[in-house]
Amino acid sequence: MIKKYNSGFTILEALILLIVLTVFVVIIALSISPYRKLQLKGAANRFASDIRICQQYAMQKNSCYLMQFDKKHHGYTVKRVKDALVVDIKDPFKKNEPFKVDFYTGSTKGIKIKDINFNGGNELRFSPRGVPMDKRDVPLASNGSVTLENASGTVSIIVSPDTGRVAQSFDK
């Protein structure tokens, strides 16, 4: 007696497999979307906080502090101007490491710096009095901003010219 074996799927089995895979894809897509919005909001909050920290350091230590933004590598560093030299400072959250934030790693992976505008430059400085200035040490004439983006949308971090007040504006 010769036995016949079916080596393929029946139409019903293939249909059930397709439905199960579709459900998994929908669940994964829905779970990623809120994560990306939270990721963007977290990056914007950290960014705004670091701007405030830079301003507070300038006023506390009676020295000029600056943030250099790197659009190409999607990050920024906070430094101190001491005797006309720009020197690294320590990150208050990561002891013994330079104050540098890189959006290519960790929980901020995928965040990009879309635009930088501080009187046309890519640097924000604070005078010893906490006044926001551009790269040439000229006080900001109008609001300065950095725009961050990821797949869920964009957020602009805005610095007021006179007080250095930091605000966030979410799009999308």
Explain this structure to me?
The protein is an alpha+beta fold. It has a single domain, classed as minor pseudopilin epsh domain (minor pseudopilin epsh fold, 3-Layer(bab) Sandwich), CATH 3.55.40. The chain is 30% helix and 31% strand. It has one helix spanning 11-61, and strands spanning 64-70, 75-82, 85-88, 100-102, 112-117, 123-126, 132-133, 144-150, 153-159, 166-171. The longest helix is centred in the N-terminal third of the chain and has 51 residues, at 11-61. The chain starts with 10 loop residues before the first helix and ends with a strand.
Structural class: alpha+beta
CATH class: Alpha Beta
Extract low-pLDDT stretches.
Answer: none
Task: Quote the CATH topology.
Answer: minor pseudopilin epsh fold
How many strand elements? Answer: 10
How much of the sequence lies in strands comes to 25-35%
The domain tally reads 1
Envelope shape: elongated
CATH architecture: 3-Layer(bab) Sandwich
Determine the mean pLDDT: 87
**Main sheet characteristics:** 6 strands, antiparallel
Radius of gyration: 24 Å
Q: What is the straight-line distance between the termini?
A: 69 Å
Order of helices and strands: HEEEEEEEEEE
CATH superfamily: minor pseudopilin epsh domain
Determine the number of helices (DSSP H or I, runs of at least 4 residues).
1
The percent range for helix content is 25-40%
Question: Would you spell out the secondary-structure blueprint of this structure?
Answer:
Blueprint: H1 11-61, E1 64-70, E2 75-82, E3 85-88, E4 100-102, E5 112-117, E6 123-126, E7 132-133, E8 144-150, E9 153-159, E10 166-171
Antiparallel strand pairs: 1-2, 1-6, 2-3, 2-4, 5-8, 6-7, 8-9, 9-10
